[in-house]
């Protein structure tokens, strides 16, 4: 997802479709282009941690812990975790820039794919248990209930991002890959709208306001960084002239 590259490739190089150039190997023990030595272990730890929401649902399922309406519980839980993973994925770039800790980018693709994984579970719960795979009824619902329309749009937009998340696809698509992965910003906005709209009907906007504020910071930071870069470029251009 969102400008995700790994290993010896820089996102910019791969998005340009350029040659993948590995840096010369450093001394043993030092961080190499493949990343620090602890990276594979950290990735396993993040992977296992990201399975927690699923494990929790399975455990609750086996211990009668899903409440009086298990379908609603699963739909809401998977929806909320989709949003959480979207926010974490979008937080990688700002955190990386603010801390200078570039290794963070090595986790981004996995986090983005977990957002897609939970969105798929969320959608599957809906189409399976709510609509019993009646696609016509689903599209009727998508057309009728605005919060479903917006959630559906967010899910549909996630599909090409997940499908092109590999390094091979990034190389194949070149610059278009980066443009395509900017869709994640629209997905973030649609996800908040979906949540807001759903909760507005229940007059309970505490969580949508919280996640809306987080999303505003994550997307606002990018707009700020972009404006700053443009201002700096125009200043250096004026200086050179
Ligand atoms: C990126 C995609 C999506 C995100 C981030 C998302 C997120 C959410 C969130 C945060 C909730 C509320 C959870 C809570 O109450 O705490 C929710 C509920 C729900 N979503 Fe989604 N959603 C997405 C896509 C979809 C899609 C594709 C559908 C169906 C077509 C859908 C249908 C629903 C339904 C039926 C509910 C529960 C409504 C209720 O319990 O009254 N969502 N979603």
UniProtKB/TrEMBL annotation:
* Annotated transmembrane regions: 41-59, 79-98, 110-129, 149-170, 182-198, 210-229
Alphabetized, the UniProt keywords read: Cell membrane, Electron transport, Flavoprotein, FMN, Heme, Iron, Membrane, Metal-binding, Transmembrane, Transmembrane helix, Transport
The compartments listed are: Cell membrane; Membrane
Q: Name one Pfam family in it.
A: Ferric_reduct
Q: Would you kindly state one Gene Ontology biological process term found in this protein's UniProt entry?
A: protein repair
Q: Which domain of life is it from?
A: Bacteria
Where does the record place Low complexity bias? Answer: 11-22
Q: Which InterPro entries match?
A: Fe3_Rdtase_TM_dom, MsrQ-like
Membrane topology per record: Multi-pass membrane protein
Disordered: where is this region?
1-22
Q: List required co-factors.
A: heme b; FMN
Predominant cellular place of this UniProt entry's protein: membrane
Recite the UniProt cofactor note for this protein: Binds 1 heme b (iron(II)-protoporphyrin IX) group per subunit.
Domain Ferric oxidoreductase residues, every copy: 78-191
Q: Name one GO cellular component term.
A: plasma membrane
Q: Which GO terms describe its molecular function?
A: electron transfer activity; FMN binding; heme binding; metal ion binding; oxidoreductase activity, acting on diphenols and related substances as donors
PANTHER family for this protein: PROTEIN-METHIONINE-SULFOXIDE REDUCTASE HEME-BINDING SUBUNIT MSRQ (PTHR36964)
Q: Which HAMAP family match?
A: MsrQ (MF_01207)
Oligomeric and partner information: Heterodimer of a catalytic subunit (MsrP) and a heme-binding subunit (MsrQ).
Sum up the protein's function in the record's words.
Answer: Part of the MsrPQ system that repairs oxidized periplasmic proteins containing methionine sulfoxide residues (Met-O), using respiratory chain electrons. Thus protects these proteins from oxidative-stress damage caused by reactive species of oxygen and chlorine generated by the host defense mechanisms. MsrPQ is essential for the maintenance of envelope integrity under bleach stress, rescuing a wide series of structurally unrelated periplasmic proteins from methionine oxidation.
Q: Would you identify the family this protein belongs to, as annotated?
A: Belongs to the MsrQ family.
Q: What is this protein called?
A: Protein-methionine-sulfoxide reductase heme-binding subunit MsrQ
Which organism does this sequence originate in?
Answer: Paraburkholderia acidiphila
Gene that this sequence comes from: msrQ
């Amino acid at each position: 997802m969102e400008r995700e590259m790994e290993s010896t490739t820089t996102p910019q190089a791969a998005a340009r479709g350029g040659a993948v150039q590995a840096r010369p190997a450093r001394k043993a023990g030092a961080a190499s282009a493949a990343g620090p030595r602890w990276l594979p272990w950290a990735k396993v730890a993040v992977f296992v941690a990201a399975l927690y929401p699923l494990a929790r649902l399975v455990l609750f399922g086996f211990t009668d812990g899903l409440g009086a309406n298990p379908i609603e519980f699963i739909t809401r839980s998977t929806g909320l975790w989709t949003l959480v993973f979207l926010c974490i994925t979008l937080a990688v770039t700002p955190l990386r820039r603010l801390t200078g800790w570039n290794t963070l980018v090595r986790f981004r693709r996995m986090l983005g794919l977990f957002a897609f994984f939970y969105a798929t579970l969320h959608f599957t719960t809906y189409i399976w248990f709510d609509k019993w795979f009646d696609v016509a009824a689903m599209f009727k619902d998508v057309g009728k209930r605005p919060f479903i329309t917006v959630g559906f749009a967010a899910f549909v937009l996630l599909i090409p991002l997940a499908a092109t998340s590999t390094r091979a696809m990034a190389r194949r698509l070149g610059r278009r890959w980066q443009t395509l992965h900017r869709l994640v910003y629209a997905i973030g906005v649609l996800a908040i709208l979906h949540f807001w709209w759903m909760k507005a009907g229940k007059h309970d906007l505490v969580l949508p306001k919280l996640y809306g504020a987080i999303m505003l910071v994550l997307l606002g930071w990018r707009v700020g960084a972009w404006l700053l870069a443009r201002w700096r470029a125009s200043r250096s251009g004026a200086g050179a002239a």
